[in-house]
Structure formats: C-alpha cells, structure tokens
Known about the structure:
The chain has helices at residues 12-18, 63-72, 105-118, 122-131, and strands spanning 2-5, 23-38, 43-60, 79-84, 89-94. The chain is 31% helix and 38% strand. β4 (79-84) and β5 (89-94) form a beta hairpin. Strands 2-3-1-5-4 form a 5-stranded mixed beta sheet. It is α+β, with helices and mostly antiparallel strands.
Amino acid sequence: MFYxxxxxxxxxxxxxxxxxxxxxxxxxxxxxYKLVFRKPYGDPDIEPAVNSTTPGVIFxxxxxxxxxxxHYEDYPNYYKKTFIDPTKIMFYEMINKTKCQKPSFQTxxxxxxxxxxxxxxxxxxxxxxxxSF
Length: 133
C-alpha cells in the first residue's frame, strides 16, 4: 500500500521512535485538500478544500508498519483512513473535525524538520501555521 504523510510522520525521528521503516516513493501534492491543526492538541489534519494543495510524501507501507501507524494515530478512534481512488494511496484524517488552533511549538518543529528532510517548501508550512486557526 502507499501512504501519504503530511504531518509529523514526515519526520524521520518520529519514524524511528515508532520503529517504522517507510520507503520514500516521491514528493506529492494532494489536490483539493488543505492542512489544518485541530483542537484539543493542535494535531495536524487535512480537510477537503477546492483549489488547495497539501504537500507531503508518498511512502511504501507494509502491513506491519501500517499496524504501528494505526496504533500511533489511534485508528479508528481519533483518525480514520481515507483512500485516494484509483491510486489506492492512504492517508489519516481526523474523525472529529473540531475547531482549528495553532499547533504546539513541538508540533511546529517536528513538521519543519520533516519538511526540510524532504525538501518541501517551508513557506507553505509557515502559511499553514498562520492561517489554520
């Protein structure tokens, strides 16, 4: 399966902590979705938004690593899995679409590090930090 990471899972330190071995396939921009941060913790989420894009990375995901990510994301209680058809790319999306809030400093730093690791545009991320609440 292919997995689209757009949040803190982009960060290799998080991947090491979770003991997942994700193989990077390519940089990807998910069309018609935007990055937001939701209450109560400022966790990253994406939601449909016409003419928006969310940058991230497509990884190859094996069954064992998928189970580890499911546990980390508290699937199916906190995040659900959404699939992009017909490509069968999976991403996690929050179940409860609570109000948006500014992410914690720690979340911001994890995301910045992940963006830098993969060569994603930090200006886009800073825009999300400023406009997601």
